[in-house]
User: Fold this.
Amino acid sequence: MSFVESASRVDTLPDAVVEVAFVGRSNVGKSSLINALANQKQLARVSNTPGRTQLINLFRCDEGDALGTIVDLPGYGYAKASKAVRRDWPEMIEGYLLDRDHLVMVFVLVDGEIGPTKLDVQMLDWLRYHEVPHTVVATKHDKVKSAKRATRKNELAAGCRLDKGDIVWVSATKGVGIDLLRSLVRSHLSG
Ligand code: GDP
Assistant:
């Protein structure tokens, strides 16, 4: 997986053969996860000032049969983001999610430690309503004690209104579930 470019607007994104996107609220662990998937430390910037960069980052995946683009959408719900950003985000991202021809899967990240937030649930409802194919990925598996994980997984699934088998739970820090998610991404990009 290699970095291609950043774009500030979806309408300037280059054409793609096939594309998957990652979306989630700021601080959910999206940059860390993309770095873990790519096996690189600094591919996507892990930020201490979440929400400051509102760029769309594109990565190319070119491995065996998997040839396509991974799109890292700006995190939503950052309280300190400017009004303009909070106003423009939904329109821009929703337009992208609805109109992008070659988008085959949206990975929605939910914090596995704190569970889905109101904004996450809104995003999932919206994707369901518009029938946009999506998969929920819970992050920060390592932050939940092992004795509590089974219960937490049930809670996560209930919060997202899914079966627990539908959720992939990963830890970018400990590498849990990364191989599985990478194969999922590749399988979508292999069409
Ligand atoms: P983003 O805003 O969604 O891109 O989130 P980041 O990747 O920047 O991560 C936000 C914070 O969560 C950072 O302090 C990360 O170190 C931390 N974080 C991300 N993934 C994990 C994880 O799997 N385990 C733990 N313990 N912390 C994580």
In short: The domain at 2-190 is CATH 3.40.50.300 (Rossmann fold).
